[in-house]
Amino acid sequence: MIQDIGPHRFDRTFSRAAASPNDFALCCGEDDVVLRRRGEGYALPHFAELGLAPADERHVFSLDGVGCYLAAMPADVPEGFESVSLRQLRRVRPMETAFAAATALQLRRWYRDRAFCGRCGHPMEPSTAERAMVCPRCGLTEYPKLCPAVIVAVTDGDKLLLTRYAGRPYRGDALIAGFVEIGETVEDTVRREVMEEVGLRVKNLRYYKSQPWAFTDTLLMGYYCELDGDGTITLDTNELREGFWQHRADITPRDQDVSLTAEMIERFRLGKENDR
Ligand SMILES: [Zn+2]
Hints:
By secondary structure, the chain is an alpha+beta fold. The chain has two domains: 10-113, Nucleoside Triphosphate Pyrophosphohydrolase (Alpha-Beta Complex); 147-269, Nucleoside Triphosphate Pyrophosphohydrolase (Alpha-Beta Complex), CATH 3.90.79. It is 15% helix and 33% strand. The strands form four sheets. Strands 11, 12, 13, 14, 15 and 16 form a six-stranded mixed sheet that branches. Residues 117, 119-120, 122, 135, 137-138, 140 line the site of zinc ion.
C-alpha cells in the first residue's frame, strides 16, 4: 500500500526548523506537485536542484531524515523535473515518493482551506507548537482534516462482492465504501453502507487494517464480513454502476498496488482473508 514504504522512514514530528538547500522542496500547485525524474520513477527534488533558495517555507514532515517543506510552484519547471497531478500520483513509484507527495498535497490543501477562522472570520496563523492553525482573535484551533471511512469486503464462501463506481474517474473493481456519519460506530457504518449500496445484510465483521488516504483526506478502515441471508443485489445506482459476486478463481491478480482495497481483494483471491 502507498504508506508501506519501509525501509524508508516517514517522520511526522512537528518542526519549526528553517529549510536548507539540501532539504526537499515540495512545490505544490492547486492539484499538482513537482517531482524529479529518476530512472523509471520519480524522486523528491531538493531546493538546490530546483535552483531555489529556501526562505520561510513550512516544514511538513521528513523522509529518511531529510526535511520536507511546502514551496511555491516555480515559474518554469526545469528540465528533468515534472509537474505531476494528484491523480497521477497513484501510479508514481517508488512508493515513498508517491506517499510523501500525496501527503504534502493534502497538507497544502488544508493550510489553504484554513486561511480564515470558521468561527469569527479572522485570518488564521500556523501554530508555533504543533501541526495546527490557530485564530489569534478567538483562539479556535484546527487540526488537519481526516474523514474516517470504511472499505468493506463482503464474502459468501468463495465469492467476493465487487463493485464499480458510477460517475467517478476510477473505473476498476472496488469494494463497498463510505464515510462514517456523526454519532455512528464504525461497525454500524459497515452495516449501513452495505445495505445502502447493495441491499444486503452482513455478519461476522472482522477489522483488517487502516490506511491514510491523502487523495481524499480520508482515514480508511478495512473490514471483512460475511453475507447474512439472501445474496440478491439491489444496486444504489447513484453510487454504483455495477455490483456482482466474483469467484476467487476469477479475480485478476494485483500486486504492488497503492490501495487498501486492492490489498483486501488480493488477500481474498489468495484465500487469506481469515489470516491474522
Ligand atoms: Zn476566530
